[in-house]
Amino acid sequence: MERHELMRLLAGDDAASKAALAALADGGEYVVWEDWIMSSEDHARVLTTRLRSMRRRGIETLGVERAVRILSEDAQPILSGLVRASDGWWGFRFFLTEDGGALVACLGIRWRDRHPSHDSDQRGQASL
Q1: pLDDT tens by residue, 90-100
Q2: Of 13, 28, 71, 114, whose CB is crowded by the most CB atoms within 10 A?
């Protein structure tokens, strides 16, 4: 998926989509796992478990509860991807319809223990 296509899809009205779009516009790296389709319900279950863990660890999130709610509401096969802010402090997971034509949900996780100068250092990174 081309950067401009993803930017168009991330032009939502929620805080996580806006932040992901800003990160992408600022040169953030991104990936869309187009060969990995999973049900929205499965994503919601995984995120629910990870959210509990992130809360216990005090990891800052953006829109995770909203994403879980949306993914749980309408069972459908979806694509997912990731935008990593160019400064390395935030990661944004997004979920698209199976055809990649529309945004389903987006969330953000602050990778609080990462420092931009340690890009190869994965310690302390919250899992998306």
Answers
A1: 999 999 999 99
A2: 71
Q: pLDDT tens digit string along 23-53? A: 999 999 999 999 889 999 989 988 888 888 8
Amino acid, single-letter form, for residue 128: L
Phi, psi of 29 (to 5 degrees): -80, 155
* Beta strands per DSSP E along the chain: 29-39, 61-62, 77-84, 90-97, 103-110
Q: Which of left, alpha, beta for 31 (phi over 0: left; psi -120 to 50: alpha)?
A: beta
Polymer length in residues for the chain: 128
List the one residue out of 25, 29, 20 whose CA is nearest residue 96.
20
